Amino acid sequence: MSNPAEEAERLADVTEASLPDGAADELLGALLRVASDLLGVPVSGVSLVGEREQFFRAAQGLKASPVPRGLAPCTYAIQRPDEVMVVPDLAADPRFRSNPLVAGDPGLRFYAGAPLRGPRGGVIGTLGVLDRVPRSLAPAQAARLQDLARGISAALSLRHATREVHRAARTDSLTGALNRMALEEMLAADDPRNLGLLMIDLDGFKPINDTYGHAGGDRVLVEVASRLRRTVRPGDAVVRLGGDEFLVVTRGIERPAAGIGLAARIHAALAESFVLNGSSLTLRASIGFAAMPWHAADLPALMERADAALYAAKRAGRGITHAAGTAAEGEALGRAALEARLREAFAPGGIAPFHLAFQPIASLSTGEVTSAEALLRWRTENGFCLRPSELLPVIEGLGYSGALDRWVLGETCRLLARGDAPCPVAVNASASTFGVPGFDAEVAAALREHGLTGECLVIEMTESSLVGDAEAALANMHGLARLGVRVVLDDFGGGHGTLARLRDYPFHAIKIDRSLVTGCADGAQGLALMEAVADMAQAFSIPAVAEGVEDAAQLAVLSRLGVERAQGFLLSRPLPWEELEAAATAMPARLRAMLAEQASSVLP
C-alpha cells in the first residue's frame, strides 16, 4: 500500500489521465481494438482506479458506469505492477462476484489486466481484456498484453510531457502565475463582455531588491503572487507581466464597483506584513482598473485604459486604485503606450519628445546661484507632464539609458552655446553611462561640437556607478577633471554613501539625499543625521548641497549646520531655460530675505 504522499501523486496522475483529449482518445481506441483482436476477446478497456471507484477511461465493446473500488479486479491488479493479473472466472471469485458488471449485464466472467503507469511512476490502472465466458490466458498472450500496456503508459506520459511543456511556456517560472503568452491566448479565447482588468504595480519594490538582494526580492514576488491567487475569485486569473507588475483578469463584472471592491481586497491582502530574513516589511501597490463595456469597446483599448489608469494611480500618490474614465481623452499614457513612444523616439532618425527644465542651486552664504540642474520633462499631447520617476525606470528597462544621457548632454550643450547661461549646468549620468570606459571622451566631443569649455558643465553621478567597473568610473572622473568638468556625488546618505567613497574619489561636491533633508527639521534624530553628514563633508573639505529643500525651517537648519548650497521648491521650481537668468539675478535677495525671516521668527 502506498504512503499518503505517493497516493496523492497517483491520484493526480489518475485525474490527468481521465481528461478528455481528442488525439489521445483516438490512440487509445486503436490500441484497444488491437488488444481485442490479438487476444480474441469482445471487451477491452483502459481502467483507472480513483480514490473510491474504478472507471473506464476508454472501452471497446462495453459501456459501463463506475463501480466501487473494492469490487474491481483492476484494484487488485495495480498492487502487483509488474505482473498481468488473470481471473479465469469472475463469478467464481468471492472478491468480484458482487461486481455489477459480473452479477448483472453484461455478465462478465473473464478478466486479465496489465498495469498502467502514470507520468510520476505510480500505477494508475490497467489495460484489461474481458470476456463473457470463463477462459485462460497463455503466457505469450500475457506478454503481448504487457507490451500494449507499456505503449499506453508511454502515450499517457507523452501527453503529460506535452501538457507540461505547454504549461511551462505559459507560466511565469518564478511565481507560478500566468505569463504574457497565456494572457494573450486567454483574452483571444474569452468573451470580452463584462471582462475587467486590474493592473498592479508594487510600490517601493526597488529598495527591497537593494537591501535584500534579488533573492529576497524574488521571495517577495512569490508571496505577492500567492496572496493574489488567494484573494481573487474562482475563475479569475493572475498574470505576472514582468518585474514587479501583475495583472488580474476578472470575468463576469456586472458593474465597475465590483472591480473596485476586488482591488480593495487586493490592497488589504498586500498590506499584511511580509517577513524577510527575520525582518518585517510592508508593501503597497498601485492599481489601475478598467472593464468592458464601460471603459473600452475592445480588448486592445481595454489594456491601454487599464495601463493608463495604473499610471494615474502612481501619480496620485501610490498605494491607491484608479479606475479608467469613460473616455480616453485627458488620460495619460500607460506603460505599453509609453514604451512604444520611447522606441520610436530612440530609433534612428527618431525625434525625442523630451525637454529640459532647470532648477537653480544657490549658495546659502551669498545667495548666488552656483549652478542649475538639468531635469528631464515630457509633456504629452493630453497635457500630462511625466516625471523622471515615471520615465526613467521605463527607459532603463528598455536599455535606452545611454541614449538618453547623450541626448541630455547634447541638449544642455546646445543651450549653453547660446551664451546666455547665468551659471554652469549640471546633468545626470546614469550608472550604465558613467561606469563605462570612454564617457569622458563623449563629454569632450560634445563640448568641442558646441565650442564650450568644461567649466560650464557639471556631471552628477550616483554611487551605483562605482559598483560595476570602478576603475573605469575613476578614469572617467580624472578625464573629466582634465576637461575642467566638475563631478558631484548625488543622493549621498540615502543608504549607500560611505567615507571610503569621499576619500578615494575626487568629487567636487556631494548632494545630500532628500530623505535626510526632509527630516532635518522634524526632530532630534533627523537633525543629528543631517549634522553628521554636514560634519563629514566639512572634514573632507567637500562642499555639500542639500536637495529637496521645501520649507524655511529646513533652510534655517541647513544654514546653521554649515551646508554650503541648497536646491528645492522653496528656492525655485524647475524653470524653462529662458527664465533661468532672471531667477539667478533675483536669488540673492530672495534667499537673504527667507533666512532673515526665519531667524526673526525664532528670536525670544
TrEMBL record:
InterPro entries: Biofilm_reg_signaling, EAL_dom, EAL_sf, GAF, GAF-like_dom_sf, GGDEF_dom, Nucleotide_cyclase, Rev_trsase/Diguanyl_cyclase. PANTHER family: BIOFILM ARCHITECTURE MAINTENANCE PROTEIN MBAA, DIGUANYLATE CYCLASE DGCP. Residues 335-588 form the EAL domain. It holds the Pfam family GGDEF. This is Diguanylate cyclase (GGDEF)-like protein. It comes from the Bacteria. PROSITE patterns: EAL (PS50883), GGDEF (PS50887). Residues 193-326 form the GGDEF domain.
